[in-house]
Structure formats: C-alpha cells, structure tokens
C-alpha cells in the first residue's frame, strides 16, 4: 500500500523513490510488525484474561506445567494481525505471491482459531475434530497448490531443487501439487506439535523465516540468483518482506511468551505460522532446505510418529512422553534449558541451510 503511494508521490518529490528499495521495505516491515505486537500485546492479554480464555493443561504431563493452567491462549491472533497489516503496508500488492502467502496464513489461522475457541471458550476438550481440522487444512493447502501450479510460468517453478547441486532440478509435473500440499500441511502441524513450551516454537519460526527471507531475496534478484547458481523466479523477492513480518511479529510475541509465558499463541498462531513457512519454501523452491532449517519441527513430528507407532505395534513407548521436548523435561531438564538448547540447534540448522547457497 505504502509502496504504491510512494510511487505516486515520487512524481512530485523524488525522495519517495527510496521506498522502492526492497531491503528498506524488509527492514521497515519487520519493525512495523514488531511494534504492532508490542502495542497489541498488553491489550490482548487483558482481553483474554477478562474473557477467561485460558490454557488447559494435561495432568499426565510434566508436573511443572500444572501452574500454567489458565494462562491466556489464542495470542497467535495478534501475530497474524501484525503480519497481515505490515505486509499490506510494505508489500507489493500487485504481486500474486503476496496474496497467496497471506491467504494461506489467514486460512490456517482461522482453522486454529475455531479449534482454540471450542477448547477454551466452549470447554470442548476435543476442539475441532481431527478429521475436520485436516479437511479444512487440505482445502486451503490444495487450493494454494493448485493456484501456484496453474500460474507457474517457467518449468523451474514446478521442479524440485536439490541443494548442493547447481543443475539438479527434478520436474514434478502435476505431482508438484501433491508435494506442495504435504509441505504446507506438514509444516503447519509440525510447528503446532512443537508449540508446547514457553517460546519454544516462536523463536525457531523467527529464525527459519529469516533464513527463508534470504532465499526469497536472492531468487527474486537476477544478479544474485546467477551468482549463487539458483533459479531466478520473478516476484519472489517480495516474500522477503513477508518473511520479515513473521520475524518481527514473532519477536514481538516472544516479549510476552518468553518463560514464564504471559500468553500462549494457541493453534491459531502455530498452524498459521507453520503453513506460512511451508508456502514460502514452496514458492522459492527450497522445500529440502526448509526440512534442514526446520529440523527441530521435523524431530518433534517424528518423535510423535515413532511414539504412536511403537505403542500401537508393541505396546511400548520409545520416549517418556512425546513430543520430544516433553521427553527431556521428564528426564529432569528444566524447561528453560530445553527451550534454549532447541533454539541453539535451530541457529545451527539455519546456518547449514544458508550454507547450501554457496556450496554447489
């Protein structure tokens, strides 16, 4: 919005042309979403407390979590609001990718909101039944996948890129839709599974978003794309603005979500953020890099799959409790230690993902 206003005003005053610089808009979008979250946070927490919209806690988990019962949840709504406002302010609204990522983020956020509302307001412990949750996730995920497939203008936009190799791109054809669906829905649920400790999910989300912003900026710039031997995909540079809004909003939310948390994001935030990372990775053709950088999300998901599978097949549990972060809590690790160590692992994994830009 401000980009188009600045372009209009630049006819009368050349200083407004500075807004055309993508790097400036990336910085300003991050700061805008950060300040929006810091401003909205206290108000939203008060409203959630007044509405008695508090987190319920399982009594079969770590005993230290019992004190968290009643902590306001659904705080992820302010993350989505900050992301949407900042993207609309600083993004190029003529860019299809901007609308796709916003649509997926808001769509998955709406699914999470319904689930949270049923759990904490209507006091229905099941929330949104799993079959309906996955149905609506599939509707949004498949909708985005089909739209991206139909609007792809070059073969590389529907090919699977393999990191570390300059020329390896596997044409997917219609299977691109299947891959995109699984990346978006899988990433959404992986972040949701990770969101079990104060600040555990939001900081890795910020770090991965920052990593993806580098890929988005490079793949949308002909000079950098050629230099780094990655495909040039016109328009993806604007996704750097979107990723910056995730990073800014995430840091703003962490101000209130850091241990001991004043508010939880709930499914409304976790499902939306995970889907946002997934759809950005798909558009910039870095699904495998997302798998690397989001290794914590992958580990948490695999731990649940292994735990459920082992218990159904053998009657035995591999971990003391799944997802994985609860396993380490029950082993005696204090919650802040689990959180910070998972953050450190994510920093390393994001750096490894970024290293694939040069090691080709």
TrEMBL record:
Domain of life per record: Bacteria
Assigned EC number: 2.7.8.13
Location within or outside the cell: Cell membrane; Membrane
Residues that bind Mg(2+): 192, 267
Keywords, alphabetical: Cell cycle, Cell division, Cell membrane, Cell shape, Cell wall biogenesis/degradation, Magnesium, Membrane, Metal-binding, Peptidoglycan synthesis, Transferase, Transmembrane, Transmembrane helix
Keyword Membrane: yes
Broad enzyme group: transferase
Stored CDD domains: GT_MraY (cd06852)
Principal subcellular localization: membrane
GO CC annotations on file: plasma membrane
Purpose of the protein: Catalyzes the initial step of the lipid cycle reactions in the biosynthesis of the cell wall peptidoglycan: transfers peptidoglycan precursor phospho-MurNAc-pentapeptide from UDP-MurNAc-pentapeptide onto the lipid carrier undecaprenyl phosphate, yielding undecaprenyl-pyrophosphoryl-MurNAc-pentapeptide, known as lipid I.
Stated family: Belongs to the glycosyltransferase 4 family. MraY subfamily.
This protein's name: Phospho-N-acetylmuramoyl-pentapeptide-transferase
Organism: Vreelandella boliviensis LC1
Encoding gene per record: mraY
